[in-house]
Write a structure and sequence with these properties.
This protein has about 350 residues and is mostly helical. It is built from 19 helices and two strands. It has helices at about 15-40, 40-65, 70, 75-85, 95-110, 120-135, 135-140, 150-155, 160-165, 180-185, 190-200, 205-210, 220-235, 240-260, 265-270, 275-285, 295-315, 320-340, 350-355, and strands at about 140, 175. A two-stranded antiparallel sheet has the order 1-2. The longest helix is centred in the N-terminal third of the chain and has 24 residues, at about 40-65. The protein is globular. Mean pLDDT is about 80; it is low at about 155-165, about 165-175 and about 195-205.
Length: about 350
């Protein structure tokens, strides 16, 4: 008897739990750096978000009278909460992470049937919901103050206010915006002027190491990329989607910036700003919500990159990775339908017609 099961399907001597925990391990260096860079509130937000995701998974499984231990140990709930936490501003109120985690697990994942049956990426669907419902909390940035820096002490004095869900008013002088945020908010559309006003005409190292305000996953682009490359080397993910996502952003950015550099951001800024590196290597590669064929993955990834560039350039939101992922998730069944691998043992239509004619 043949037993069919839902995705993700492992085609090697491995398991779903091993894949999930390897992805989590690849996120650890960038996460630790981001928490160190942004201080105790970032650690609180991360812990509450991950803990809420695990609790929501446990609650849903017990409500459905299903065994919780084997499913919780697979690491999928931890990874969902982890990715959601990295997509949130470092000083977002703790309840934002808790609400987003419950939405991701209960509404986006378990309502559809659990692991392998959700249409949309749970973390990104929750990110979009939070951005639409709570735009102020999701677009309030605080400039980094490392745990052991001179500014860390004064920042930690208002840690209790952050725990209560309030953004301390004493931090107004330290608040700021990302490069993409300045592009959307400044009246001028001259990119060079906007970058100068934002103070982003810095060296490349500042962008690579994430020494600027933003979400937890907008820091340490180099560490995130290193973790993603490690996953490719370990064959946890394939190179098709990450490369296609980066190409989908870089190609139009190169062409339009060369045409009108005063209006369009350069490709390097697009690639190193926002959550693009996190999205390309860790979010878009979700095996449940992405196509199953290499050619389909290239189409899927390029679509995410192109939509990201379009929304960043012409849309109302400064960051667009979550929107792009959700939109392409909706197209995944269509891509899988029309981009199919060749069935071994079956001749192509052209070969069949040629054989029939002879």
């Amino acid at each position: 008897m043949i037993h069919a099961s839902h995705a993700p399907h492992a085609h090697a001597p491995t398991s779903i739990s091993r894949v999930m925990w390897l992805v989590i391990a690849a996120l650890v260096p960038a996460t630790l750096f981001s928490i160190w860079l942004n201080g105790w509130p970032a650690l609180l937000l991360w812990a509450v978000t991950v803990g809420s995701a695990v609790f929501a998974e446990f609650f849903c499984l017990r409500l459905a009278q299903r065994p919780a231990a084997p499913v919780l140990s697979d690491g999928s709930a931890v990874l969902t909460g982890w990715l959601l936490a990295l997509s949130l501003p470092a000083w977002a109120p703790w309840w934002i992470g808790a609400l987003g985690a419950f939405f991701a697990i209960v509404v986006v994942k378990q309502v559809f049937g659990g692991l392998g049956q959700n249409l949309f990426n749970p973390a990104m669907a929750a990110r979009v919901m939070l951005l639409i419902a709570f735009p102020v909390e999701l677009t309030t940035w605080v400039q980094p103050a490392p745990l052991f820096s001179a500014d860390a002490l004064s920042l930690s004095q208002s840690f209790a206010l952050t725990f209560l869900g309030q953004m301390p008013s004493s931090f107004d002088a330290l608040s700021g915006a990302t490069t993409l945020g300045h592009i959307k908010t400044e009246l001028t559309r001259d990119i060079s002027v906007v970058q100068a006003l934002a103070g982003h005409g810095q060296s490349m190292s500042a962008s690579l190491f994430g020494l600027h305000g933003g979400s937890l996953g907008e820091t340490a682009a180099m560490l995130l990329a290193a973790g993603g490359l490690a996953l490719i080397a370990l064959r946890v993910i394939s190179w098709h989607i990450p490369l296609a996502v980066l190409a989908g952003v870089a190609l139009p950015a190169l062409l339009l910036h060369a045409h009108d550099p005063a209006r369009y951001l350069d490709a390097t800024t697009h690639l190193l700003s926002g959550g693009l590196i996190l999205g390309a290597f860790f979010i878009a590669t979700d095996p449940v919500t992405s196509p199953g064929t290499p050619r389909g993955q290239l189409i899927f990834g390029f679509g995410i990159g192109l939509l990201t560039w379009l929304i960043r350039t012409y849309g109302g939101y400064p960051e667009a990775v979550a929107f792009a992922v959700i939109l392409m998730n909706a197209l995944t069944p269509v891509i899988d339908r029309y981009v199919r691998p060749r069935i071994y043992g079956h001749a192509s239509k052209a070969a069949s017609k040629k054989g029939a004619a002879s």
